[in-house]
Amino acid sequence: MTQTAQTGFSPEERFFLQVLRDHVHGRDTAPPPDGLNWDRLARLAHSQQVSGIVYVQCRAWLRDSEAVRTQLHEEFYSAVYYAVSRREDIRALETAFTAADIPFLLVKGAEVQSCYPVPQLRTMGDTDVLIHPRDRARADALLKAQGYTCTVECPAVWSYRRGPVKYEVHDHMIYEPVIGDVDYAAYFERAWEHVRPLADSSRVQLDESCHFLYLITHTAKHLVNKGYGFRPFLDLVFLCRSAGERMDWTWIAQELRALRLERFAQVCTGLCERWFAVRLPMEKAEIRADFFRSATEKMLRDGIFGQENSEENQVAAVTKALRRAALPYPLFAARLTVQRLFPSYRDMREIPWYAFVDGRPWLLPAAWVYRFGYVLRHKSARGRAVLTQPLTEKKQMEQRGRALSEWGL
To answer: What is the Cα–Cα distance from 20 to 25, expressed in whole angstroms?
Structure first.
């Protein structure tokens, strides 16, 4: 990205993007501009979960900002310590699952991390593990026997935690709609057809071409749902740099068309070139200046997984439902209001404080009454905002819909 392309961003944002670009190219970062607000830069790095990268690139310039230097060093040290200890945890998991004859794959960060020039700087909040649905009960019993406590995030994703260690154990790689009527869950059930044995290991690894498709789909899912930040785009860059020559780009293009994500992947490629000054080995979309600015602003605003952008995330959820409904807006708004007043049995049983309906669908009316009373007493303002959202935020939904279209989604 040229300096001109960054015009309009704050000095901290411009310098942050320069730091990421320098890390991608393995070069030192030049001195920052005078008057740079290091506190803002540190907050930006933390929100994107790249504090370790920023510390390594900038430590020579942090002498006059001892508090920020200490903060970034602590986050750097934490990332390195976590990465080293996680390797031992994964070895233990591999031993236990192999002994129990439970095949598994590591996906996302746990695999992409090795593609980074300094793997320990690719942070992870958890380790994503894919198993076959038939092995769910045995994997659950095994992990609980090892002292992990389980939380069911959704039917396809069970989280296991023991101290600082957290596994997300999936029995489907994608378990919800992304765009259109493509059955992404069924498509990625074929992932087990694209594995190869790892040298010096009893486990198998998803081949890089299929993993690239998954990362693109996972990125699209998060952008449709909420947001994602810059780290997943760094993942794409480093995966392509590490394994691009082994990847089947003809097959990838063909499968992206089947997934209706070819345009989105080309937009991602074009943005990576602009952000990080790299060329990925696939066709790119031409990125207009106004879209480049809005996409960059969104990545900066979102933080990792959109966690810094809760207000926009609420609009995103309704926009996703609107796009999937394919109804005239008044009919969609009416249907959404009814659904919010009377949530389905499936939705209610997933909420812990209404769990008494699970297995007892005849109690659903009682749960609705209890919910009405609780909201009126404790969350009346929030309840009104939720019900009137289709009317008060229609413009924001239309804007988000147009933005997603520009992304190719």
So the answer is: 9
Burial status of residue 249 (CB atoms within 10 A of its CB: 0-12, 13-18, 19 or more): middle
Alpha helices in 230-309 (DSSP H): 231-243, 249-258, 262-276, 289-302
Which residue(s) pair with 165 in the sheet?
162
Strand partners, 167: 127, 160
What is the C-alpha to C-alpha distance for residues 275 and 92, in angstroms, rounded to an integer?
A: 38
Yes or no: say if 100 and 138 are a contact pair by the CB < 8 Å rule. yes
305, 228 Cβ separation under 8 angstroms: yes
**CA 328 – CA 82 distance, rounded (Å):** 50
- The answer to whether 330 and 345 have CB atoms below 8 angstroms apart is no
pLDDT digits (tens, 9 = 90+) for 165-216: 889 999 999 988 888 889 999 999 999 999 988 777 777 889 999 999 999 9
Q: What angle, rounded to 10 degrees, do the helices at 208-225 and 262-276 form? A: 90
What are the CA-CA distances from residue 192 to residues 30, 167, 204, 250, 322 (Å)? 45, 20, 10, 20, 33
Give the Cα separation of 224 and 366 in Å (integer): 34
Fold of 83-308: Beta Polymerase; domain 2 (3.30.460)
Number of H helices, E strands in the chain: 18, 7
Query: What 8-state DSSP symbol labels residue 135?
Result: G
CA distance 213 to 207: 10
283-332, pLDDT tens digit by residue?
999 999 999 999 999 899 888 876 656 666 666 666 666 667 677 777 76
3-state secondary structure of 226: coil
Per domain, the residue ranges of the chain are 83-308, 312-406
Which residues on adjacent β-strands are paired with residue 197? 204
Alpha-carbon distance of 214 to 247, in angstroms, equals: 14
Q: Residue 107: what are its φ and ψ, rounded to 5°?
A: -135, 165
Query: Comparing C-alpha atoms, which of 35, 39, 44 is closest to residue 18?
Result: 44
List, in order, residues 6 or more apart from 401 with CB less than 8 Å away. 319, 322, 323
Q: pTM for this structure?
A: 0.83
C-beta separation of 59 from 239 below 8 A:
no
What's the CA gap between 381 and 335, in Å, rounded?
21
